[in-house]
Give the backbone structure.
Amino acid sequence: MSTTYLAETLFNGNEILNNVSMTVENGIITAIETGNKATDGVKLTGLVSPGFVDVQVNGGGGVLFNQDPSLQALQTMVQGHAIYGTTAMLPTLITDELPVIERAADAMAEAISQGTAGIIGIHFEGPHLSEPKRGIHSSSFIRPISDKELAQYCRQDLGKVIVTVAPENVPADIIAELVKQGVHVCLGHSNATADVVEKALQAGATGFTHLYNAMSPLTSREPGMVGVALNDNNSYCGLIVDHHHVHATSCQLAIKAKGWQRIMLVTDAMAHVGSDITSLPYLDTEIIREGDKLALPNGTLAGSALDMATAVRNTHRDLGLPLIDSLNMASATPATFLGLEQQLGKLAVGYSADFVVLDKSQQVQSTWISGNKVFDAHQ
């Protein structure tokens, strides 16, 4: 069963094309032709772009993964973010106790085995972090890495796996072992010196979790984690472009230093995104939404209310990046980081038919995963 889509304009990951027909069979793109005059097909009005890939998403649609580590919660998160063009995500479990890690891993394994649309793996953000840079992560759960936790991270039934660690608290040989088992190790929530960060990169770490936030800063005599991240040519950095986590100038500096090819737009979204909830109980406090900002009652930022489409708009309009670079940072770059550059992040023959249709203001009109419409703004 094949379906042909007729696009006025289509961004394939390299350039914007006009009058494009895209044929999809069994969720995979089998043909793309330009200058198309066909009238028989599904018409897509607006700019068709590769779907967004979010490697750090704690919740959505009213659920927080930590509070409900289940298959149903994962499906709800996908729906909550599909509204904003996300077609692939790594639900993110923040620092918690071992039984929650195990339940989250089991839920992910179930989702992967069933081919749950939009779910491509899991991100364990902690619990092996730095106490001084823990943010809203609970002190009571922060701990050294154990064999039981390693066994969960190295499972081969979880899809793509990211583990965020503070390298001063996780030895380089452990990082190397995780990488050997196929885990993508990111560095974050860390007070490490530049030397320790360099050793972690040499051991195989390839990413930095929410650049600038909760990490040792760049100073004149100690580059810190931020300095090493900006200076390293090969690693990838997640960046929260919500105008609360990172100043616009710092965002621009990061993109100038590393290029769009190494900066991934991420949401760090909580349950509030894709829902109308304003307050979420969290441990012994609550996370309150005020406008587009999430914080604890004491003012500490607590994840974000950001969605990927807004991240693209903020990057394009407010940071002044070309639209195609902004779109790539939300699609091609995270896909490449995960080793999925032959499947996701572009619209080309052989790739998954994951795409989003945007109007001239980059507002999402519809979202498609594997050629199936999962959101329509007009329905």
